[in-house]
Amino acid sequence: MRLLLIPFRAYCTRVTISSNSLIARYARLGQIHNAHKIFDQMPDRNISSWNSIIAAYFQNNQPWEAQKLFDRMPDRNIVSWNGLVSGYVKNGMLNKARKVFDSMPERNVVSWTTMVRGYVQKGMVSEAESLFGQMPEKNVVSWTVMLGGLIQEGRIDEARRLFDQMPEKDVVARTNMIAGYCQEGRLAEARELFDEMPRRNVISWTTMISGYVHNQRVDVARKLFEVMPEKNEVSWTAMLMGYTQSGRIREASELFEAMPMRSVVASNAMILGFGQSGEVVRARQVFDQTRDKDEGTWSAMIKVYERKGLELEALELFASMQRRGVRPNFPSFISVLSVCASLASLDYGRQVHTQLVRCHFDLDVYVVSVLIMMYIKCGNLMKAKQIFDSFALKDVVMWNSIVTGYAQHGLGEEALEIFRDMCSMGFAPDDITFIGVLSACSYTGKVEEGLELFESMKSKYQVEPRTEHYACMVDLLGRAGKVNEAMDLIEKMPVEADSIIWGSLLGACRTHTRLDLAEVAAKKLLQLEPSNAGPYILLSNIYASKGRWHDVAELRENMKARSVSKSPGCSWIEVEKKVHMFTGGDSMGHPEHPMIIKMLERLVGLLKEAGYSPDGSFVLHDVEEEEKVHSLRYHSEKLAVAYGLLKVPEPVPIRVMKNLRVCGDCHSAIKLIAKVTGREIILRDANRFHHFKDGLCSCRDYW
């Protein structure tokens, strides 16, 4: 009988081992039901089988089921108890893990080390230290775990003392200590330890190289990289990122080409590197050549498009990413929200908002701030305020967003009210807050309030006025016709006037036809920004309004001689999640050109009946009146509004964006268009929002 039982027992042991492996495999795949089925079908379960199924439940985040199985175990050993402690640690249940640890019938060095590691991973380093001090015996792993905890807290000198006490120092402990020194910027000490190592592995070399890279010592990192006995994917990527992060894209490109294996992290770094250096085409080439793209790859390329002003390409890539089933990550959501804000793509922005809610990103204060700004820039101030009001954990950035939003929409009194609420709730306004409230005063002509706020910045709120704040004040005074006072402020302010300040003064001079100061401001602007067409155009406007065509012609010659070109007026409108672009005087490129022209002609008739007469002073050419009228008719914002009337159903507001300030004639025309068509039209220009309804504009003709 004994001879017969031996092979049977061997067979049972093999079946048990095989079943335990299957349980572990199903656990890794997240198929806990199949794992339990294997366990139930086992003819002979031993302690290892029970340990395997308990570990499987912990691995699949079902700690209570694991505990039930542990309670049912017929026999337990120290491995079983250690598995229970480890399972609770991995599920973040430190209190429960400690209760199990304290109730263990016996403990070994693994039990103690597991509990110490749990505290370290949770950032509870003091508790880890206390337990470490009580350990009856320690091994190299215990010492290394505690060392990592001290390094994690930035207690590098205490970590070094512990390191020196270690009876045995393995390559992991030494590498951790090197990494700690590098994190603190103490490269000399890190290098000394590295040089003293009796044995180094590829991780030790890579850690030292990464330390140099992290501390902007890229050339030293490269020298060490060249003498590495062996390199892996991480080593190559660390060196590559040193070049991309320091903007040395040519060297990064050469290294990337030489890489024997290109990790997805390396490809992502190259995409961002090429993007930062303006080489969008090369960034896209790397993106297209990356086989195993992860969410970071898509996010990197979307960010490149967003940063370089290629908003439509960013949206198309985001849509392609979703079609392929790739779940967007946090950075890609932020990039796309920024694109939606830039394009004022409200429909797309709403869609992204819905996805953020599904992914629970809408609980993040930064995301909510970006969401608020997106709705503001899309012209939906009501939704922005609704999100703002519903979010409990507001910060200064969020308050700034809503203050600025109300300012941009011309709601100065409301912006000031929110500012007062912010202060009464204990939030200290910063420099950005004051740009928002001073802009609100400027856009709505609240000169006295603006002056009081400006005076209180330093005296009451301890915020030192910067150039941007002086620019707001020059704009405030200039818009209100106090051009001399604006000039006095420029002459007396303690900071050097920049192009924004002189530009604000020049704009005020154009509005109030102050040719004397306009020429002063224009000359200053041309010194600061000789290639900027803006000063030429504003001064040309003033000369043209005075009939000084000789001076207009001379300005044009100067522009030609300096190769200065005017940015063309461009407007766009979103219809059914597609952005339609229009440039001044041209709708020929649009597939529905005939319909747009027909609508424009119809509007011209309706406007004439309503008493509209084109204002030729907004045409910068010395041409016949008939030509001026023709030029005004085809300004880009009028083309976009005409298309909106054709495509946007009532009562949905027509939302149009323009890259430049809206001209006075278009402003007058769109007010009347809103009246004769009974539509609400929201226009966002380079400075602010205009809400047109019933023949009136929210700016009250003050912009």
Give descriptors for this structure.
703 residues, mainly alpha, 6-stranded mixed sheet, elongated
Explain what you see.
Strand 4 and strand 5 (689-693) form a beta hairpin. Helix content is 68%, strand content 4%. It is built from 38 helices and six strands. With 703 residues, the protein is mainly α. Strands 2-1-3-4-5-6 form a six-stranded mixed β-sheet, with helices on one face. The protein is elongated. Residues 1-13 and 620-630 have low confidence and may be disordered.
In short:
This protein is mainly alpha-helical.
Structural class: mainly alpha
- The strand count comes to 6
What percent of the residues sit in helical stretches (DSSP H or I)? 55-70%
Task: Average the pLDDT over all residues and give the rounded result.
Answer: 87
Strand order within the widest beta sheet: 2-1-3-4-5-6
Gap between N and C termini, in Å? Answer: 104 Å
Shape, principal axes of CA atoms: elongated
Radius of gyration: 34 Å
**Model regions low in confidence, pLDDT < 50 over at least 5 residues:** 1-13, 620-630
Strand content: under 5%
Total of DSSP H or I helical runs spanning 4+ residues: 38
Let me know the largest β-sheet.
6 strands, mixed
